Amino acid sequence: MVLMFFIFLFLAIFLQTNIFPSLLHTNIKPDIFLALTLYLSLFSDSSKGIIYGFLSGMVLDIFTEGAIGPNTLSLMTLGFFVGYIKSFVLLENIPAQTLLVIVSTLYQWILLFIYSGVFQLAINSISEITSFLFTQILLNIVSTFSIFFLFDFLKQKQSLKI
Amino acid sequence: MLEFLRKHKNKIILPLALLIYGTIFTLNNTDIYFTAVGIFSPAEKIINGIIKDMEEYWYGYIFLVNTERDNLILRKKLRDSGKLKYSFEELKRENKSLKEFLSFKEKTGIKSSGASVIFRGASSESDTVFINRGTEDGITKNMVAVLPEGIVGKVVKVSKSLSMVYLITHPNSSIDAIIQRTRDRCVFRGGKSCKLKYLNYNADVKKGDIILSSGLGGVFPGNFPLGKIVRVEKDPSGFFLNADAVPAADLSHLEEVLILENPYHLEIEQLKKSSEQ
């Protein structure tokens, strides 16, 4: 699992910095780092989610602004909370997972907007944020389920080998 | 001790992680994280090259297969010359942009060098790009990135062979500006939609007016296009006008930029040298 995480983390860097911007021709892109954090928080040891979230967020921040920022904090805490609530939700339930992606994306961006406000940055109008978040949520749902499917597939292959 | 930690790990892991976050946050003042990005830049350059080649192939050949008219022209040209490359359209575009850069360089008279954008910030809506020039090529902080259409941003972090550019749409970006037609002063501020701040309430500005950099602030050279006004509204407080703007340069499809030497920086250096003497 750890090796798979680092391979996907490595791939996520190239996907988000180079491949998605070229393919999508827009600044909004699916958040592979969020998908990785959610998967590993849901399907691994509960205390490990925070570590995976921390590492994913740190890489995302460094490759965004060259410094540690709000994504480390949001993904780290998300990893912790998802690891904490996973005993209360049905893990294989698709609607529950979709809801989790929506809530996580909103949480991540709310934290980012608070962070921006704290540091005297411009906060944009509600309509602009809403349309942006809507697209972001849709892309995140697609990318998260793709990552879930890939991880499950690789895990199955691995267990078959064993 | 270890037994205690193991027993209470779920309770202490979050405060511990927050403490680590706080500690590593203090290292933001150093270049340690940016140096880490620099390690990846060779791989990013290769991937960027592959993507460009694929795009070149796509737009130069496959895309044209679906366009009957263009396809016929291409076929004819292929028959005629037999030497038409897949990259013809790309080369033409590159040639055009280089010509524009050259005439722009001559026009401005400021020393400049070209750079390629090798990747963009990883987060959605990030307003940063990373270019393939660093201290080795004479790039320093606060140099300005431009296109013939207008200002792109400024260099904020530099490593040996990589630099990070904050685009003018970055929420942290504020540039002193003037409206070309009315000469009214304002501040061009970044964000998802760029805003003009502190624009005189009685200013006669309207949609479509061009915004230029004023040259004040000592970073951005004066009289370079920044953007144009897309919406003007009177502030209910009665102090300033609220205006939205869009950047003059297309910042979502950046491939090559010109990096201008900061003329003010040179002057400061010269003044420092002369005062030392």
UniProtKB/TrEMBL annotation, chain A:
Keywords, in A-Z order: Cell membrane, Cell shape, Membrane, Transmembrane, Transmembrane helix
Pfam families per UniProt: MreD
A GO term from the CC aspect: plasma membrane
Keyword Nucleotidyltransferase: no
Keyword Transmembrane annotated: yes
Membrane topology of this protein: Multi-pass membrane protein
BP-aspect Gene Ontology terms: regulation of cell shape
Coiled-coil regions listed: none
Cell compartment(s), UniProt: Cell membrane
Membrane-spanning ranges: 73-91, 98-123, 129-151
Similarity remark: Belongs to the MreD family.
NCBIfam families associated with the record: shape_MreD (TIGR03426)
Entry protein name: Rod shape-determining protein MreD
Automatic annotation (TrEMBL), chain B:
GO biological process, one term: regulation of cell shape
Pfam family, one: MreC
Domain Rod shape-determining protein MreC beta-barrel core: 117-260
Membrane-crossing segments per the record: 12-28
N-terminal signal peptide: none
InterPro entries named in the record: Cell/Rod_1, Cell/Rod_MreC_2, MreC, MreC_beta-barrel_core
Alphabetized UniProt keyword annotations: Cell shape, Membrane, Transmembrane, Transmembrane helix
GO CC annotation terms, alphabetical: plasma membrane
Domain of life, per lineage: Bacteria
NCBIfam families linked: mreC
PANTHER family linked: CELL SHAPE-DETERMINING PROTEIN MREC
Protein family according to the UniProt entry: Belongs to the MreC family.
Role this protein plays: Involved in formation and maintenance of cell shape.
Protein name: Cell shape-determining protein MreC
